[in-house]
Design brief:
Blueprint (H helix, E strand, L loop, with lengths): L7 E11 L2 E7 L12 E4 L2 E9 L2 E6 L1 H6 L10 E6 L18 E11 L2 E7 L2 H4 L7 E4 L2 E8 L4 E5 L1 H6 L10 E6 L1 H15 L2
Antiparallel strand pairs: 1-2, 1-6, 2-5, 3-4, 3-6, 4-5, 7-8, 7-12, 8-11, 9-10, 9-12, 10-11
């Protein structure tokens, strides 16, 4: 479980093909403190398991399903991704509960600057848009954000200068794809509504 409060960005330093999957190695830097083999860490909002450690370098296995459903297939050596270690009991919850399971991809449709702030509009699959509501929560590349607006076509968020500076979201451009995870409560509500209407 995660909070969507990114601790930093880390570079991919190695990727090795392994059958239908790949092994990714990230240099965690100071975020390697306390990390052990078997721990879960979210990269761009996608939960991965540490399979090997060497100093600050941590290696993860990505299966064909993960590669096909995420933007990692296009991540190159030296590219930085948002990183968050898993939530521990007693840690403060400053964002919202994020599972680290990517629901789908969104695409930047429009970017508008307003002083130091930046407003983003995204397209997304309809079933995910219907799990969003204005003032609700969304995780974009692992960053916990509040939705400004949502419809059956688009959703929007506003990013403060700090978020733009300390996460990868400040580097997005029109056409960029991002990982999306909708609020877990919205998933349960949607499932209950589907069950109710399918039984009528």
């Amino acid at each position: 479980m995660f909070t969507g409060l990114v601790e930093g960005t880390v570079p991919l330093i190695r990727r090795i093909s392994e059958g239908a999957g790949e092994k990714f190695t990230f240099d965690l830097g100071n975020l390697a403190e306390g990390v052990r083999t078997g721990d879960s860490i979210a990269f761009a909002g996608c939960c991965l398991t540490v399979v090997a450690l060497a100093g600050t370098e941590a290696t993860f296995e990505l299966g064909s399903e993960t590669l096909s459903k995420t933007t990692f297939r296009g991540t190159g050596i030296g590219d930085h991704v948002n990183c968050e270690r898993s939530l521990r009991v007693g840690d403060p919850l400053g964002g919202h509960y994020v599972t680290g399971h990517v629901d789908g991809l969104g695409t930047v449709d429009q970017i508008r600057e307003e002083g130091p702030w930046r407003f983003f509009r995204f397209t997304a699959p309809l079933h995910l848009l219907r799990q969003m509501a204005a003032k609700g929560s969304i995780a974009i590349d692992g960053v916990s954000l509040t939705l400004v607006d949502a419809s059956d076509q688009l959703f929007s968020v506003a990013l403060i200068p700090h978020t733009l500076d300390v996460t990868t979201l400040g580097k997005l451009h029109v056409g960029s794809q991002v990982h999306l995870e909708t609020d877990v409560l919205a998933k349960y509500v949607a499932r209950q509504l589907e069950s109710r209407f399918s039984s009528v």
